[in-house]
Write a structure and sequence with these properties.
Blueprint lengths: L1 E7 L7 H8 L2 H11 L4 H9 L5 E7 L13 E5 L5 H13 L3 E5 L1 H5 L1 H5 L4 E4 L3 H12 L6 E3 L26 E4 L2 E2 L19 E2 L2 H14 L4 E4 L8 H11 L5 E5 L8 H9 L2 E9 L3 H4 L8 H5 L3 H9 L4 E8 L8 H12 L3 E6 L7 H8 L26 H15 L2 H22 L7 H6 L6
The structure holds cobalamin.
Amino acid sequence: MRIGFIAISGLRVCDDTLLRLGLSFPSLAGRAEQIEALPSLGLLTLAGMTPSRIEVEYLEVRDVDRESLPTRFDAVALSTLTATSKEAYRLARRFRAEGILVILGGLHATLVPEEAARHVDCVVVGEGEPVWMELLRDLEAGRLKPRYDARGRGPFDLARAPMPRFELLEKDRYPRFTIQTQRGCPLSCDFCAASMRLSPVFRNKPVAKVVAEIRRIKELFQHPFIEFADDNTFSNKRHGRELVEGIAGEGVSWFTESDVSLADDEDLVRMMRDAGCRQVLIGFESPRFDTLDGVETRSNWKARRTTRYLEAIERIQKHGIAVNGCFILGMDGDTVASFDDLFRFVRDSGLHDVQITYLTPFPGTPLHQRLSEEGRLLVEEASERCTLFDINFEPSHMSVGDLREGYLKLLSQLYSEEQVQARRRNFRLHLRQRVRSARPAAAPPAREQSASPRPKG
Ligand code: B12
């Protein structure tokens, strides 16, 4: 039996103007280049769970319509996100035409399994691990089922997480590697289409397993930079400390995502820096309480934190960890004044990096359901527009045109050389102050010493 683990690679933006504009900014183009090459950890993880009697390969397809199709597999495991789901369906049709079984999984298949089932032989809903061994047995026995739903089996225990098959990756192709240290999120934002949709329960992976994965990557690749494929690495501070203590000795540089409560624990932030953390991405979403009011559905947590955003950014960056602040434009509380408000906030916050995206109604989320019920989706089935950089809904206090123009203008302002240099200069100041404050106070020159009376005895 031979299985191909196939990921659809590359970033996606439908709006050509935005794409061209975005790529015209060196700092944005640089970031895009760094991240778009990230491999599919989901597929490498399932490959790691696949018994050695089954031959496995990991491949990436960028152009699903034109690239030649590897036909040496009995079955392919396809992973897809909403933005590339239609491409995945076209790719599935090509494999099936060759008599190759297509198994589809991932966030989009989990969010809309009925739609996915129309295009493939088998859909896996939820996390892959809880059903993968059963699926393989069925596959080998020629009785693959059309659907395997992991959600009814409870959250996968990350203490049983397999070692992802990093060795399947092509050498020298990946500037960065992803490792996952947790799944789920204690928060519940109505727009979120990330890991909490696979299984809402927040869980941490044992630190020893994370360290083992880092060591595996170090064995295979020179000076790897690690991106934690987490939604909220440090929402559990106690585990966060254990994690940082565990990876401190590994000598790797890393990046992760966490919520703003990270700033509540400066000791942890200091430990993170010493353990190689270079940047954290924080979903601030909006600096305005009114705009965020009700978005986090459990305790309105994000809205209630807006007043402490500036202090939080300072508390993290002063320890030498760059903050990449993420903001969403087009939420119901936003008006045409929100663009300039955000520009001023970012400028005055000292943020080292910033990412702005459009509110995106991913199918299967409460936001999508609400906007659909309100008749505010522009095109119901436009999954290809779920890129975070394309508009697929009617904003409440401005037109689609206002939102797009405001976004493009803000992007040009935020990524102007002047603003990028200002952010970098400000952050370098932090680094210098940090080095200075870390340096032990110099002893007064000898001459002076004689002036002070010698201590007794
Ligand atoms: C790393 C990452 C990337 C990487 C790698 C993507 C990849 N192929 O995995 C890169 C940088 C390439 C990327 C690109 C994009 N990303 Co991205 N990315 C992430 C991130 C940070 C982590 C994903 C991850 O590695 N998770 C860990 C693994 C273990 O989980 P998993 O992939 O879900 O796999 C599990 C299950 O889903 C399932 N499974 C997955 N695949 C399969 C396949 C089979 C056959 C089976 C049985 C099971 C299965 O089993 C796995 C184990 O349980 C997430 C945020 C998040 N935390 O989810 C955003 C995220 C997934 N990205 C997102 C988006 C929008 C994009 C882009 C569209 C952005 C753009 N405009 O270009 C592109 C699309 C790229 C593409 N070609 O599809 C959204 C997707 C939302 C959605 N529902 O579609 C997320 C959730 C971020 C967000 N804030 O909303 N991304």
